[in-house]
Amino acid sequence: MTTNSRFRFDSPFGVALLCLLALFTFGVNGCKCVGTAHSAGKAPVFNVRNYGAVGNGTNLDSPAIDRAIQAAAAAGGGTVFVPAGTYLCGSIHLTNNLHLYLDAGAVILGAPQNLNAYDETEPWTPPAYQDGGHCYFHNSLIWGENLTNVSITGPGMINGGGLVRGDRLLDQMCGFNTSDRPEAAAKTNYPPVRLGNKAIALKLCRNILLRDITIYHGGHFAILVTGCDNLTVDNVTMDTDRDGIDIDCCRNTTVSNCRINSPRDDGLCPKSSYALGRPVITENLTIVNCQVSGFREGTLLDGTLKPARGTGRIKFGTEASGGFRNVTIANCTFRGCHGLALEEVDGGIMENITINNLTMIDVVQYPIYLTTGSRNR
Length: 377
Fold this sequence. Notes:
This protein has 377 residues and is mainly beta. The protein is 10% helix and 38% strand. The protein has three helices and 28 strands. The protein has a 19-stranded mixed β-sheet that branches. A six-stranded parallel β-sheet has the order 6-9-12-15-18-21. Strand 1 and strand 2 form a beta hairpin. The protein is globular.
């Protein structure tokens, strides 16, 4: 038997190898970069360090991050990459076709209020039928309005830092009033304020993905989404003092594999407020494989799980002007907190709600609470 050791490039294997060699050669020598955007057949990547971000925890880095976001927008979209470091930030402004990626060790840290780094509240015409936290969106750490195709992902963290949990001033500004706050509507000509009180706020957005990030100390809302369509929140950890995530007037939403610790307010809260100026149903919502708890803030993240007999529940409402339709909740765990609450007290509907396979440990007060009523909203 004769062995031919010569390699034939006209064989099928040889042709394939030539193609691979050509691709390798082009990848090494033929790929060109434009500015700081690196492209290899995919959306360009914009590193915030190349736009002036320092990441030392003291330099205000939100203007530099915004410059990277605007560069991505000018390119038609792309990934804004936040490498390891602590980035002191005021308001960060999202755009269309944007992927904000927080790398391992990256922390976006909310600036203290005295830096006036958060955007001013937008105009609101009173009266409001929901609290001020639901009426204003621009005074947030990260926010977007009327956007399409936005992702915030990665193993990094959003630390609310200087975000505040209170909204009494915002209640007064928007004219919100309840029987226990008669002073709230006394004055409605307040000037705009820079009261940063939300970690992420999204309004009237479509095709949104939040995945893998951690939010600590998120202010009044770690995540507030209002009037959004096609929203996915997956594998997100929230360890915060007030609401974890509020899903308000939204359609086609999936929340999965999340851990939400909120000792002093609700954990995962479908709502249907009047924030859009009309009743809008929250519908086609799926919540699966989530954990809610009421441990002391920060102790979910450090693993000590210090008891606080907190709130931390899954709660429909209380704001429910439009109501809820076509909702599934399955395979969820409640730990050291209130249980499941379904509340329709604002005139909306509650229709086609399916709930199964809940596990509750050390539940505070009622495991399952159902109520109807009228708050004259």
